[in-house]
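R.M. (postdoc): so does anyone remember the format we settled on? I'll just put the structure tokens first.
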């Protein structure tokens, strides 16, 4: 960002941060942190491990939010004081130091401001991400694997925990599909704007004649279910099949039938899980994925009903959402927000925050317009 008048930029950042502090409701967050600390200190906390993990995870997140906003406020206030000192002393070096600090504050405050836009019913949830190879043959399978790595690297950059539930490998290269969880607050709200079809254009490494190939992969993002969702699945509506887990090329990685495939008979939804060590663990993980898919199905049916009542015939915003071109030039462009970059290597290594943030803002503008 080109900084022309530091005082004006600091005033604008101060107004933005004040708005963020108001939306986050810091007094309420501090009260929640106090309550969670009391729960975390209970001697019987770990008698219920699932509850304990929810409490400690939420406590860590709330404390992190309070600390992050507090540190930003302190940095901003210090920059304002420093600029005043520099102007009083007519010291250009101090002004330059403040300008550098403004650039850093602009980025961090912008990121946390985007978080305040995530106020959907499930935005605060963890995310369940499924990537599927679509049109393009072996290149599409390879592209699906590249996308999976991109999102896992993005999560790693943010220190978000991930868990891979299932990978279905393609015969020659890449993957047919993969499902993994991103275990962080607001992971669903953040990644939900990534849902849709991702298009890759490149010279195919699998074509002996070195021709350019266009391939597609689909990204699905679901909220992880919680007990309050009441997704009840009668046992007689599920068919359970067990089989031996396998890796790339069909190589066996287990000598027992530990992998699990669940088929929800009424809807035809099929879920597999083979990355856990035991059949019981795989069944539990597959059931969580199935519950998330059914929750999303219920949500979409409700949305379709509301749209029909409103006479809304517009299609989903998620399809054909981003293009990645590696040949004859290099560019990644979001087809919804027009955000683009020529640094394709960084994007494929997980540097996608600019695309995610612009997608969240774009979606919010659409919601306001409608």
């Amino acid at each position: 960002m080109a900084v022309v008048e530091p005082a004006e930029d600091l005033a604008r950042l101060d107004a933005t941060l004040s708005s963020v502090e108001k939306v986050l409701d810091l007094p309420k967050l501090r009260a929640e942190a106090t309550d969670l600390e009391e729960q975390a200190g209970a001697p019987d906390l770990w008698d219920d491990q699932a509850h304990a993990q929810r409490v400690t995870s939420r406590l860590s997140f709330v404390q992190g939010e309070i600390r992050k906003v507090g540190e930003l406020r302190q940095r901003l206030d210090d920059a304002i004081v420093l600029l005043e000192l520099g102007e009083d002393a007519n010291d250009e070096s101090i002004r330059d130091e403040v300008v550098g600090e403004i650039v850093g504050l602009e980025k961090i405050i912008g990121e946390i401001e985007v978080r305040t836009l995530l106020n959907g019913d499930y935005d605060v949830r963890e995310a369940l991400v499924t990537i599927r190879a679509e049109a393009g043959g072996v290149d599409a399978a390879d592209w699906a694997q590249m996308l999976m790595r991109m999102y896992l690297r993005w999560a790693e950059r943010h220190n978000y925990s991930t868990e891979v539930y299932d990978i279905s490998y393609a015969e020659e290269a890449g993957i047919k599909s993969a499902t993994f969880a991103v275990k962080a607050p607001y992971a669903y709200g953040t990644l939900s704007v990534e849902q849709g079809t991702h298009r890759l254009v490149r010279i195919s490494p699998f074509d002996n004649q070195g021709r350019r190939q266009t391939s597609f992969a689909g990204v699905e993002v679901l909220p992880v279910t919680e007990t309050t969702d009441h997704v009840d699945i009668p046992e007689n509506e599920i068919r359970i099949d067990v089989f031996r887990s396998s890796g790339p090329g069909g190589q066996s990685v287990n000598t027992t039938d530990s992998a699990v495939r669940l088929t929800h008979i009424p809807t035809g939804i099929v879920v597999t899980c083979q990355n856990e060590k035991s059949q019981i663990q795989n069944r539990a993980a597959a059931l969580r994925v199935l519950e998330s898919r059914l929750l999303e199905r219920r949500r979409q049916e409700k949305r379709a009903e509301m749209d029909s009542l409103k006479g809304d015939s517009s299609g989903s915003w998620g399809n054909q959402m981003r293009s990645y071109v590696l040949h004859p030039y290099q560019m990644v462009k979001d087809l919804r927000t027009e955000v683009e970059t020529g640094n394709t290597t960084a994007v494929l290594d997980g540097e996608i925050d600019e695309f995610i943030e612009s997608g969240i803002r774009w979606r919010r503008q659409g919601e306001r317009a409608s």
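R.M.: ...and that's the designed sequence above, right after the tokens. Also worth knowing: DSSP finds nine helices and eleven strands in the chain. The radius of gyration is 24 Å.
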